[in-house]
């Protein structure tokens, strides 16, 4: 099987997590930013990730891929209801953190922006939604506190390692994305969770690129 991804993409991280947690042999295929032809050819849509099965059929949508891999390759991992507190935290924090995360993604060291043309395509795409990204970077000091407050709220929720549920496929991609933001402080419970999930899922954190 092949999994078409962007390395930075939190939604792609979801599919990568399940493949890694279950040790499923999947070939990762990075799509260059600005290449809309590849996803359109595979599914008729521009979005990633895309799972190309061994029979050649293709599946979009990150959570559909997560559940397909879990159901197809036993034993199933997602047998408990989603942790609603972690789901709610992830949704709220993602909205708060986007203006910190996005400009840093466009400056990151990812295979999908390995050429100048690809990086400029990425910047242009994100500026359509978020405006000038340099201006957002300049607002970092004002944008950090509400996200830090959310991280502080997460600590007690992770005091005991939670059972794996679908919530982890929302939570870890958000935390991974935030790890690229210099100036955020992850508490010991959160950091332990992040490092453990990075190791088990084989989806590395982005702290080495923090800016």
Topology summary:
Layout: E1 2-5, H1 10-21, E2 27-30, H2 37-43, E3 50-52, E4 58-60, H3 62-72, H4 84-107, H5 116-130, H6 133-138, H7 140-157, H8 168-178, H9 188-201
Beta-strand content: 5-15%
Gap between N and C termini: 35 Å
Order of helices and strands: EHEHEEHHHHHHH
Unreliable stretches, pLDDT < 50, 5 or more residues?
none
Q: Name the strands of the widest sheet in spatial order.
A: 2-1-3-4
Mean pLDDT: 97
Task: Please describe the biggest sheet, giving its number of strands, its sense, and whether it closes into a barrel.
Answer: 4 strands, mixed
* Strand segment count: 4
Query: What is the overall number of helices?
Result: 9
C-alpha-based Rg, rounded? 17 Å
Write up this protein.
It is a single chain. The chain is an alpha+beta fold and 211 residues long. Helices cover 56% and strands 7% of the residues. The chain contains 9 helices and 4 strands, in the order βαβαββααααααα. The protein has a 4-stranded mixed beta sheet, sandwiched between helices. β1, α1 and β2 form a beta-alpha-beta unit. α1 packs across α8 and α4 packs across α5. The protein is globular, with a radius of gyration of 17 Å. The mean pLDDT is 97.
